Amino acid sequence: MHALQALGASLVELGPAQLDAIELPEALREAVLAARRIASREARRRQLQYIGRLMRDVDPAPIRAKLDAWHGQSHEATAALHRVERWRERLLAEEDALTELASEFPGADLQRLRALVRSARAEQARDAKASGRPPRAFRELFRAIKAIVEGG
């Protein structure tokens, strides 16, 4: 019973597009939407209990599967961004990192990457002197690596 109530609370936290993507009975959908509008802590708790009661009549497996899939995608996306970030840090810190990137991703435009790395290093040296300018090449290097990693 508590697990169903927790699952219902997860539904309340979803965005409108995600909620629309899940097949729910109309009464449950209305209860979830009503819970979003409730500001009072006690009233919200009672509404979540009501959602838990309504969840008893619904097969929770497809809902859990959909939530788990979204949760997994979020972790995968975060891991991919961390991987790009690690490559950027290595390219800026190590001289031989560019050849390793080229060996792992053969289609990479090495000339462009080399120029971006050089510009980003120059920006970092300027920022150490507090130039006050935004790190344009640093960000562009991230976007270029991201395109390579996602494409490769």
Largest sheet: none
Number of structurally distinct domains? 2
Distinct helical segment count = 8
Give the helix/strand class.
mainly alpha
Describe the protein's architecture and organization.
It is a single chain. With 152 residues, the protein is an all-alpha fold. The protein folds into 2 domains: 2-58; 75-151, Diphtheria Toxin Repressor, domain 2, CATH 1.10.60.30. The protein is built from 8 helices and no strands. It has helices at 2-13, 16-21, 26-37, 41-55, 60-93, 97-104, 110-128, 136-151. Helix 1 crosses helix 3 (26-37) and helix 3 packs antiparallel against helix 4 (41-55). The chain is elongated and about 60 Å long. The two termini are 46 Å apart.
Task: Please give the structural blueprint.
Elements: H1 2-13, H2 16-21, H3 26-37, H4 41-55, H5 60-93, H6 97-104, H7 110-128, H8 136-151
Compact summary:
By secondary structure, this protein is an all-alpha fold.
Entry keywords:
mainly alpha; 2 domains; Diphtheria Toxin Repressor, domain 2; 80% helix; 152 residues
